[in-house]
Amino acid sequence: MAKKKASKKSVRKPAKKARPTRKQAPRTAKKTAAKAQGMPFPFNAITHTQIPAPNLAKAQAFYGKTFGWKFQAVPGMAEYVLFKDGLSGGGLNAFPGAVESGTQPYITVKDITSTMANVVAAGGSVVQEKCEIPGGQGFVAQFSDPNGIKIGLWSAS
User: Fold this and answer.
1) What are 137-144's contacts with CB under 8 Å, separation 24+?
2) Within 13 A of 140's CA, how many CA atoms are on the CB side?
3) Residue 94 above 50 pLDDT?
4) pLDDT at position 123
5) CA trace torsion 122, 126, 127, 132 (10° rounding)
6) Is the pLDDT of residue 66 over 80?
7) 3, 21, 116, 151: which is deepest, by most CB within 10 A?
8) What whole-number distance in Å separates Cα of residue 47 and Cα of residue 45?
9) Which pTM value belongs to this model?
10) Which residue has the higher pLDDT, 77 or 27?
């Protein structure tokens, strides 16, 4: 009788479940202070960008299709929609003069009034005093830096 060769069966161990490799960044003092006040972003950081959009429908179609942005209407502001880009976001602005004013960043601050005092002390100038955004969306103001560049400020109160 012929001998049978012993078959070698490879024994596979069950695959280990992959562990998440993303390390969470340590919280900064600015971010911790902002979170304590219910703010999703750190203070003194650019957190919102306003893009001129004379035709909101065309702009929404373009940015939605190109980048997958989602849009949200702002109560009481037919000429403005908010967008989320996955990280922070901003707004599409169809107000008169939006194109002339250009794309504008907004910086989240704890206190607009004291920040504006710092702006003036450092050589900037006030473009728009603090005012409330309709629909309980917080407050904004605008300043020009010493080079004449217009920047916005936003705060919750």
Assistant:
1) 137/74, 139/112, 140/106, 140/112, 141/112, 141/116, 142/104, 143/116, 143/119
2) 17
3) yes
4) 95
5) 120
6) yes
7) 116
8) 6
9) 0.69
10) 77
